[in-house]
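Per reviewer request, we include the raw input and output of the structure prediction for the construct analysed in the revised manuscript.
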Amino acid sequence: MRAHLVIATLALALAGCGPVSAPPPAPKLPPQPSVQDIVWPQFRGNHSLQGIAPHPLNPPLELVWEADVGAAVKGGAAIMRKRVYLGTEKGEVVCLNRETGERLWTFATDGPIESTPLVLEPELYIGSSDFHLYAL
């Protein structure tokens, strides 16, 4: 009986010692879409408010630019083509170049802006604490 147990154990041990195959290749990440292909025109990204980017970000990520807009930004940014739009606590709507972070223009309101702009081309909509909704 003991001999059968040893043979069965050896058979099981050898069964797992088949030829070693190479590990499967790592999956290829999809190419990064161009700047013009990625948009985030409103709060949480789309009309369904999913908050999910349509294209994955390929690591490693690196800082491309940063911009000092002169005041706190409480809402998010809206992104359309080569522009980034945001509102500041100082009451300014700021438009930045998406590729460089350079300030392209500023529009002043009479109150802080705490919301995320909405881009419905060709207009940009933003509400201010001055009780106005602006269409730029």
